[in-house]
Amino acid sequence: MTRRLKREYYLGDNVVSIARSLLGKILITNINGVITGGKIVETEAYSGLVDKASHAWPNKKTARTKVMFEPGGIAYVYLCYGIHKLFNIVTNKKGKPDAVLVRAIEPTLGIEHIIRRRMAKKLSKQLSSGPGKVSACLGIEIDHNQESLTGGKIWIEDSKESDHTIVETTRIGVDYAAEDALLPWRFYIKDNSYVSR
DNA sequence: TCGACGATGACCT
DNA sequence: GGTCATCGTCGAA
Q1: Which of A32, A56, A168, A195 has the most CB atoms within 10 Å of its CB?
Q2: pTM, rounded to two decimals
């Protein structure tokens, strides 16, 4: 069985280890009563204090990034390229702007709704293999920004699964971050076909 | 105000 | 491999 992660989980001060430990857990949404979810198979860590790739670097608080300065356990959702909604998990204590980007899931719950949202005919590996696709599958919108992850709309459940091998590598699409683009802060489950790229 | 530019994805060749 | 849709954000003016 599975159980919902508690607030304390998200308050941890090591966003990199949280990003790694989120692999295999189940991300679930309840959007107007429609429940969908999937196993997290790919994540990336972003740390506002030390990481040029983070929107909140260097400890930069703006209208957009202020949600990352809140205590962990809430969502940071923003619009990328004017089209895609990217879902992040805010971590760490108040004033420490860390977040984990969920890049891919393996659908496990409400698969018929996921297929409908993606306007597909059937389940395929390409439905949820990318951060914009994850939000599209789960019905995550911009106005879920700052939504609590311990409430009734978006949450994460633990899983007993632990037999996967984790691959760590560099993050995607952050070349602008110069040397920080080389940090091994992207994690995915080895051989899982829902991983992006 | 204004303009450059994305933590992407779909579609094309 | 390449192109481009599309718009909020942020720093410059």
Answers
A1: A56
A2: 0.97
Residue A1 inside a domain? The answer is no
Q: Tell me which protein residue sits closest to nucleotide C5, measuring alpha carbon to C1'.
A: A83
- The kind and range of the H/E element at A167 are strand A166-169
Distance CA A68, CA A98 (A): 6
* Residue A178 resides in a domain: yes
* Confidence at residue A161, expressed as pLDDT on a 0 to 100 scale: 79
The nt closest to A83 (CA vs C1′) is C6
- Assign A105 a pLDDT band (cuts: 50, 70, 90): very high
Chain B nucleotides close to protein (CB under 7 A) are 5-10
The answer to whether A104 and A41 are in contact (CB under 8 A) is yes
The count of structural domains within chain A is 1
Total count of residues recorded for chain A:
197
Structural domain includes residue A132: yes
User: Domain range spanning residue A13?
Assistant: 7-189
Q: How far is the CA of A81 from the C1' of B5 (A)?
A: 9
